[in-house]
Write a structure and sequence with these properties.
Blueprint: H1 5-18, H2 22-34, H3 38-54, H4 60-77
Helix pairs in contact: 1-2, 1-4, 2-3, 3-4
Length: 79
């Protein structure tokens, strides 16, 4: 995962666009602007990445990146 979770989320969204999964890409990008605070953004993004990881249409490499970012966000948000 990139050192900046926001940049990694944007990179994942760009990759989703490249493989024709625009709806998923828009969901990831939307998470970055829908929250009012950093914590809200992390929570929205974590939820959407979890859903993305369950979708069979997502290529394995993008799924792995989404899971890594999800796990980072999960640790950052704590118990």
């Amino acid at each position: 995962m990139a050192s900046d979770p926001y940049q990694e989320a944007k990179a994942i969204a760009d990759s989703l666009d490249k493989v024709g999964l625009r709806e998923h890409a828009d969901q990831v990008r939307g998470a970055l602007v829908e929250g009012a605070t950093g914590t809200e953004i992390y929570m929205i993004l974590r939820w959407r990445l979890a859903n993305l990881a369950q979708d069979l249409a997502i290529p394995a490499d993008l799924k792995a990146r989404a899971i890594l970012l999800h796990d980072y966000l999960d640790r950052a948000l704590g118990p």
